[in-house]
Design a protein that fits this description.
By secondary structure, the chain is mostly helical. 82% of the residues lie in helices and 0% in strands. It is built from 17 helices and no strands. Helix 2 crosses helix 7, helix 2 runs antiparallel to helix 8 and helix 10 runs antiparallel to helix 17. The chain is globular, with a radius of gyration of 20 Å. The two termini are 41 Å apart. About 3% of the residues have low confidence.
Length: 395
């Protein structure tokens, strides 16, 4: 029996470490981030196109961040349903809805209909995000999970950098064109459906009850809080940097895509090297260093406010953000019982996406009253304050 079990584990290990399998898995997890980066460079053009609409400066940014509100609302529900009924069926169906609702934004010439389709897009993203992340937790454990989370972050960042550049090029010709890139999700859906498998449900054995008894929700609150702050600060980049580059610095939309992709590139490298970083720094230390890096990046843009400072600053922001995102997920999965992983990831997705949604409501009033350059100082100060707070959370 034990020999048969070992053979099964070896077979599963070989299967889950195949390049095609890992590509299918991590491409599905990266879709959640691509949802924003693809159209980020179109936001200034959308605002100009609908310039006669009242409050368009906020509505245009909601095209980017409104999905995050619906991810926040539906992620906990998606976690409950995925824990109860399985991962793969929800992942495949939601990937199809993700593509269709993403592409259809290109055909509307009404800002409110675009926002409606972005809301549907957010619901689909909630299920993609939770199902894909839960599958990562199911397929890998221990150090392999840390490596998988790092690879997930790297794949997400590489995809984000590529599609940010592609979106910038397409937006240079017409703001509608980047929406069509969402159609690639249909091809990924077929690849995922033919490559991934539904994990076996975890058996409830005696030691699980002991873990569940010791598990306290307060122990994961730092993950949720720091995830919220990270996303609120990080999304200052795709929501405000395009305006800063095109209107304040007078550069083209193509350059916007390349500048913001610098942050994604650094994010990916930082995620990839997370297991090595973890050998030298504790979980709490990674939070501290990460927040300091992100704050320093925005502070550099505030001090110099030129295109070179933007590139370097966003690189530093990405280095800090990439390590912290993986750190957050790794810390959460290490302390949450297996039977509650779907719900825990759903709540983490909800809090992070609430940070994305709230980001323009925090940044836009500062821009209107003090100017866009001052915004970067405010964001830097908040991040430095989080680094100070992380001295006490978690060790």
């Amino acid at each position: 029996m034990e020999i048969q079990q070992n053979r099964l584990e070896q077979k599963l290990y070989a299967l889950t470490h195949r390049p095609t399998f890992m590509f299918a898995l991590f491409s599905s997890t990266s879709m959640t981030v691509l949802g924003g980066t693809i159209i980020a460079t179109s936001i200034p053009a959308i605002e100009n196109h609908f310039a006669d609409i009242k409050h368009i400066e906020t509505l245009a940014k909601l095209v980017l961040t409104l999905p995050a509100l619906f991810i926040m609302l539906f992620s906990p529900l998606s976690g409950i349903l995925i824990d109860k009924f399985g991962r793969l069926k929800f992942l495949i169906g939601s990937m199809f809805l993700w593509s269709i609702s993403g592409m259809i934004g290109a055909v509307w010439d009404n800002i409110y209909w675009i926002l409606f389709t972005r809301a549907i897009f957010g619901i689909a993203t909630a299920f993609v995000m939770t199902a894909a992340s839960t599958l990562v937790a199911d397929y890998y454990v221990g150090e392999e999970r840390q490596k998988a989370l790092g690879l997930q972050g790297f794949a997400t960042a590489c995809g984000s950098a590529f599609f940010m550049c592609l979106g910038g090029i397409l937006a240079h010709f017409d703001w509608h064109y980047p929406f069509y890139v969402y159609g690639l999700g249909i091809f990924l859906m077929f690849f995922v459906a033919t490559t991934l498998f539904e994990p076996r449900p975890h058996k409830k054995i005696a030691h699980i009850h002991t873990i569940t008894k010791d598990f306290k929700i307060i122990s994961v609150l730092p993950c949720y809080f720091f995830g919220f702050i990270m996303m609120a600060a990080y999304y200052t980049s795709p929501t405000q940097i395009p305006y800063f580059i095109t209107q304040y610095l007078g550069k083209s939309e193509i350059l916007v895509g390349f500048c913001i992709s610098a942050s994604a590139f650094a994010y990916g490298l930082s995620s990839l090297f997370y297991p090595r970083i973890r050998n030298f720094l504790s979980i709490g230390s990674i939070y501290i260093v990460g927040f300091i890096c992100m704050g320093s990046g925005f502070f550099l843009i505030y001090i110099l406010h030129n295109i070179y400072a933007v590139v370097l600053g966003l690189l530093i922001v990405g280095i800090g953000g990439g390590a912290m995102i993986v750190n957050n997920s790794s810390f959460l999965l290490a302390i949450v019982p297996k039977e509650h992983i779907g719900k825990a990831i759903g709540i983490l997705s909800a809090t992070a996406c609430f940070g994305q949604f709230i980001s323009p409501f925090f940044s836009q009033p500062i821009v209107q009253h003090y100017g866009i350059v001052a915004l970067f100082l405010w964001v830097a100060l908040v991040l430095f304050a989080m680094a100070f707070l992380a001295l006490w959370k978690p060790k």
